[in-house]
Amino acid sequence: MKINAFVEDLKTKSAAELNEELVAAKKELFNLRFQNATNQLNNTSRIKEVRRNIARIQTVITEKAAQN
C-alpha cells in the first residue's frame, strides 16, 4: 500500500479504530525486535516501516484531537 493511501485510510477511521491500529502496530514492532534479537528476522527494513507507520497513526490521532 502506498503511503498516501495508508494515511487517507487512517483519516477515515474513528479514534477507537486508530487506537486499535496503534496497539497492533506496537505489538508487531515488539515481535519484529524480538525476532531481530534472536537472529530470526529476514527483512530488517520492516522495523523501520512499522516505526514510521506508528508515527503516522499517532499524527492522525493528534490531528483528530486538535479538530475537536
Secondary structure topology:
Layout (H helix, E strand, L loop, with lengths): L2 H9 L3 H23 L7 H23 L1
Helix pairs in contact: 2-3
Condensed summary:
With 68 residues, the chain is mainly alpha-helical. It is built from three helices and no strands. The protein is elongated and about 45 Å long.
Write structural notes for this entry.
By secondary structure, the protein is mostly helical. 81% of the residues lie in helices and 0% in strands. It contains 3 helices and no strands. Helix 2 packs antiparallel against helix 3. It starts with a helix and ends with a helix. The model has no long low-confidence stretch (mean pLDDT 94).
- Our measurement of the CA-to-CA distance between the termini, rounded to an integer number of angstroms, reads 29 Å
Q: Report the β-strand fraction as a percent range.
A: under 5%
Give the rounded overall mean pLDDT: 94
Q: What's the overall geometry?
A: elongated
Structure class: mainly alpha
Helical fraction equals: over 70%
Poorly predicted spans: none
Order of helices and strands: HHH
Number of helices: 3
Instruction: Report the radius of gyration as a whole number of Å.
Output: 13 Å
Largest sheet: none
What is the count of β-strands? Answer: 0
